[in-house]
Each structure stands twice: as structure tokens, then as C-alpha cells.
Amino acid sequence: MSDNKKVSFKALAWPLFDAIVADAPMRDLNPWENGEYHPDYATLCLLLGVPLHLEANTRSGVPALALDIWVAYELRRGGLDPDAVWPRAEAPRVVDRDVLRLVRALPKKALGNEIMTKLRSGSGVGGVATASANMLGKNYFKQVDVIMSSWQTGPELMISTKRMDSSFGKNMQNRVEESYGDAKNLSLRHPLASIGFVYSLRSTAYDTARPQYLWLVDLLIKLGREDDAYDACCLVMPEWEGAGPADEGEVDEDEPVISPDDVEVEDVEEEPPVEDVDAVLAALPVVSLRHDLVPDEVSPGRFFKVILEGVLDASPISMHVKARELRRGLKPTS
Questions:
Q1: Residue 135's beta-bridge partner residues?
Q2: Among the listed residues 185, 143, 148, 136, the one whose alpha carbon sits nearest the alpha carbon of residue 161
């Protein structure tokens, strides 16, 4: 990496995000108990602390990315194929699992390592591996934040995420309206896919923008009841001391997607090494969650229960075997 090239916030954040997910104590524990899904909130709080530590603004995409990574992590905890859930826990973040199976079957000392290096860097692979995923809806392409898909099945699960930490009265309605239209667009082309919406709202909204908070909660509940839009909606309300990510406008991912090739390419080579990841993670700003401000109908536990059961109900019993076993409280056979 050249000395005069500025390192992006995402390049700084990915090693920290990856370390948090890799070392999560609940990573391999069954999230299901007595038919209810129990999310790993401790890991979410750590992930939300990364953009605060980096002082990453909203336009960097890092504050929203923390939410995407947690949602994908929970889906993997629920037993879905780690290679099919995007963003993956390692680079390349978005690549079809059949491509990975092919590469892994190649001799590692020959083509295998070389091709995997290219996939991880996103260079010279013709868009096969990227850092974002665009899906064609009924009328237009839409970048989807968290997705499970493959060549054989098409998209089985699509989740949009939004985050608002300040300026609650400025863009809240616009963001929800855009997401509602996107859900209609996607569901009309992919009616069997489970489609969800996760919204992160800083807890200060409850005190400083109570009408907007009440409006959002009411709307999320209603959106989750639509037959041809979202199967479930989720609200998380993080709380921390001090300022939050600077609101400098929408991130680039919210720009219209004209072509399926309009994707972000992640250059892993640009990720600078972190000398002492454990020390950095230990010093992350403390983030907690206000569960008392989140109604049951939009709680994360209910959200993942509905989304995961929707995937299982819409697929043959021979698919997603691990997820089915975990759902039944059994020890996975694979």
C-alpha cells in the first residue's frame, strides 16, 4: 500500500469486525431454546462499538456495516450455510458458494491459492467476488445488505438494514418509505424469499424525538404485517455515552443501482494490520441496548425466528439440515 493512499474506514474496520465475530463466545451455541430464538446481543454491542472507536462517519458505511455483519452472523448461528450468507465472515464477502467449492477442490499449491487470492482482493475476477450484492426486483436492481443465495436456488433470504443515530426528524420517514418500496420491488420477483427489515435507532430518540420514535415503532409493526412486503421487521436501540457517528449524508450504497455490475469491490490488500487486536477490542466504547424500548413484535428474537422459519418452510426438508436440527434442539450431524 502506497504511503500517500488514504486508508478507508472500512479497511480499518474489517479486521476488528472479523475478530469480534471469530471470537464470539456464543458463536457455536444453539440460539434456539423452547422454540424461541435468542440473539447474541453482546456481540452486537461490540460490533456497534467499532465505528465509535474509529470515529467513522455515516457516509463511510461503517456504522451500517456493523449492523449487517451482526445480522449475517446471527443467520450463521441459526445454521444457514456460512458460504451462502452474505456478507461472509471472511473475504470475499460476496461470492457464490459453488465458486468456493471449485476453488477448494483445486490443488492449493497450484491454482487454488492464486485464485483464492484474486477472489479475496476482488481484482481480475470479472465481478465474481465483490463486497456488495445487487438483486433484480420486479422493476429495478437493489443492493441488498444481507442475503442468502446461490446459483441453484436464487435468493432465499434478503434483509435490508437502516441506521439512524442523529437528526431523527430529518430523514427517518424517507428511509422507511424507500425501504418499503424496495421490499415490494423484491418480493414481487422473489415471492418465496424471506424478506426482512432491521432498523437501528439510537436510544436518545426516545427522549429527544419521542413523536418520531413512536411513529417509527408503529410503522415497523405495520410493515411486518404486509403480505407482499416484509415478513418481519426488527428494531434495535443502542445506547452509549458521547457523540455518535457524524451524519454527513447518505452512504454511496443508497445511490440508484443501474446495472448488476454496479457493486463495491473490496480490496483486502488495503486492510492495514492491527498490531494488538485484543487491546483495541478491550478499549472499545461501551454500547448497551435498550430492550425496554422495543416492543415484542419488532424484537430481534422474534425477527430471526420468523425469518429463519420462513426459509425452512419454503425449502425442501433435505435443504438447510443444520438449521432444522438446531431449530428442533438437536445436535447438528454436520
A1: 142
A2: 143
Please state the separation of Cα 296 from the chain's center in Å: 21
DSSP-based three-state secondary structure for 31: coil
Residue given cell 422507511 in the structure block: 176
Contacts of 29 (CB under 8 A, 6+ apart): 77
Instruction: Tell me the three state secondary structure of residue 282.
Output: helix
Here the cell at position 64 is 451500517
Q: Which one has a higher pLDDT value, 12 or 103?
A: 12
State how far the Cα of 24 lies from the Cα of 275, in Å rounded to an integer: 20
Nearest CA among 32, 100, 97 for reference residue 308: 32
The three-state secondary structure class of 203 is coil
> Where residue 1 falls among pLDDT bands split at 50, 70, 90?
very low
Model pTM? 0.88
Instruction: Look at residues 236, 204, 59 and name the one whose alpha carbon lies nearest to residue 212.
Output: 204
Q: Which residue has the higher pLDDT, 334 or 234?
A: 234
Q: What is the C-alpha separation between 232 and 197, in angstroms, rounded?
A: 7
Examine the pLDDT at 205 and tell me if it is beyond 80.
Answer: yes
Residue pair 132/121 in contact (Cβ under 8 Å)? The answer is no
Taking the C-alpha atoms of residue 203 and residue 211, their distance in angstroms, rounded to an integer, is 13
Other C-beta atoms lying within 10 Å of the C-beta of residue 208? 13
State how far the Cα of 49 lies from the Cα of 60, in Å rounded to an integer: 15
Q: Which of 136, 194, 200 is nearest to 165 (CA)?
A: 200
Helix (H, G, I), strand (E, B) or coil at 311: helix
Residues forming a β-bridge with 143: 134
